[in-house]
Amino acid sequence: MKRILLAGAAALALAGAASAEIRIAHVYGKTGPLEAYAKQSHDGLMLGLEYATDGTMEIDGEPITVIEKDTQLDPARGRALLAEAYGDDDAHIAVGPVSSGVALAMLPVAQEYERILLVEPAVADSITGSNWNRYIFRTGRNSSQDAVSNAIALAGPDVKIATLAQDYAFGRDGIAAFREALEGTEAEIVHEEYVPTDTTDFTAAAERIFNAMEDVEGDKKLFIVWAGGGNPMGKIQAMDPSRYGIEIATGGNILAAMSAYKQFPGMEGATYYYYEIPDNPVNDWLVETHQERFGGPPDFFTAGGMAAGIAVVEAIRRAGSTDTEELIATMEGMEWETPKGTMRFREEDHQALQSMYHFRIKVEDGVEWAIPELVRELTIEDLPIPVRNQ
C-alpha cells in the first residue's frame, strides 16, 4: 500500500508541477564563431529527447516544449536570457551554453532562480569547480577530463611539452588541469603560450615557443588546446617545428576541424567522442538516425547534446516531478546511458563522469577528415578526475 501511495504522489507531483507541459530552455550560442558547435549541440539535444521518450516527446503524458535562446556568445546576454527563461518563460530546467565564458556568467542566475542549469558543452573546470553552485549539473566533459586523458596519451620518459591555448576560461583552465595531470609522470610542461580567442596569425606565438624549446633536451611536443577557427595546428606546422625537434599534439575535435589533422598521421591524443568508437545501442541509434536525417555521421557535440537530452528525460521521469529539489536529489549519483556508454553525475560537484578515448590518427583516402583510431577506452575508473569545488 505504501508503494502505491508513493507512486501516486509522484505522478500527482509531476502533473501539478508541469502544468500541462514540461518546459526546457536551450540557451546557447546559436550564432557567432562557435555556431557549428551550437548546431550540433541542439540537434543532439532534440535527438536525445526523442530517443528517451520513444519519439513521443512526452514524459509521463506531459508534452515537452523546448525554448531556444541565442546568447550570441555574449556573457551578459547569456545571463539575461537565462533569467528570462526562468522568470518569464517559467522553464523548469535549462541546458547550455556553448562558451565557457558565457556559462560562468550564467551560473549565478540558476542559483538566484533556484532552477537547474544543465551545462552542455562548455568545458572550463571552474564551472563545476570554484564557480559552482548546487543548481549546476554538467553532462559535457570538463577540462580535467580532457587533461587527464591527454596526459595518459602523451606522457612518457623525458617528454617535454610546450602548450598553446586561448586566453580565456576554456584555455586557461585546460592548461592548468593538464599541468596538474602530468604531475607524477615523467613528462613536464616547460613553456605556456596564451593568445586571444580570435587569433589567426600564430607567427609570434610560434616563434616564442620555438625559442623556448630550441635548447630543451628530450621528446619535445607542442600541445594545443583550441576551440573554433584559426587552424593553429596547420599554420604552426607550416612553420616547420620539426626544425627544433617539436611534434604537434592535441585532443579531439569536430569533423570539420579534424580535416587539418590529416597532416599528422600517427599523432596521438585523447578525444571526447568519435562516432565509430563507442559500441552500444544508444550510439547505434544516433549514428543511423543522424545519417538518415542529416546525410552524415553525428559529430563531437551531437553526442553531448544527446546525452543532455536523455539526462533531462531520465531525471524528470525518475523524480516524477519537475520540482528542483526533487530533481537534484534524483540526479546526484544518477547513472544513465548515452552514446558514449554510461555516464554518472558525481554527487560532490554534479560533473558527469564518463569515458574518454585515447586515439592515434589514421589517414584514409576518400575520408575528408583524419580518423582518430581507438588505442584504448579510458573508463570512469581509469580517470582520476579531481573535485575542485571544495
From TrEMBL:
Could you identify this protein by its name? ABC transporter permease
Q: Which organism is it from?
A: Rhodosalinus halophilus
Q: Which SUPFAM superfamilies match?
A: Periplasmic binding protein-like I
* Secretion signal span: 1-20
For biological process, the GO terms are: amino acid transport
CDD domains named in the record: PBP1_SBP-like
Q: Which residues form the Leucine-binding protein domain?
A: 21-362
The record lists the lineage as: Bacteria, Pseudomonadati, Pseudomonadota, Alphaproteobacteria, Rhodobacterales
Q: Which Gene3D superfamilies match?
A: 3.40.50.2300
Q: Which family does it belong to?
A: Belongs to the leucine-binding protein family.
InterPro entries under this entry?
Answer: BCAA_transport, Leu-bd, Peripla_BP_I
